[in-house]
Amino acid sequence: MATGEVMRAAVDPSQLGVGEAVTASGRISVARMHTPQAPTVPFTPVQLSSLDEALTLASRTTGLDFSVYLGELGGDTRAQAEALHASTARPTHAVLVAVSPGERVVEIVTGEESHRRLPDRGAKLAVMSMVASFKEGDLAGGLVSGLRMLADQAGHAPRS
Length: 160
Fold this sequence. Notes:
The protein is an alpha+beta fold. The chain contains five helices and five strands, in the order ββαβαββααα. The strands form two sheets. A three-stranded mixed sheet has the order 3-4-5, sandwiched between helices. Strands 1-2 form a two-stranded antiparallel ribbon. Strand 4 and strand 5 form a beta hairpin. Helix 1 packs parallel to helix 5. It is elongated. The termini are far apart. The mean pLDDT is about 90.
């Protein structure tokens, strides 16, 4: 055998499986079926129901529009959260809780009316409560308790 030569064993094509072939160089090429993974969701149906109930109750009780964003916020997390808040139906009455678990960021953005009724101190307390739950691995529970705290801080809708 000369230097640089590779000794190849003869391959019987009848011994090859489905999707396998012998190339001209003697190498065995294998094709495998790719089955994509189903996307995973962060919440169970029960957790989604609890989150929906907390959002509905907070909005109904306070007259403010509560919403939650869960996902990546990018480099300037505050600017992205403010842009999301501005895209709501009534930004002056909106409260956005933006959470980016991968970036370990929680942003609460309020509009003019919602900020008047929901002081920064109340928002900070809600964030601290949510972060404590998030550290324990309870994303849904943290969001639900944070929404309840924010609604309590904002109080009932003013009577017209």
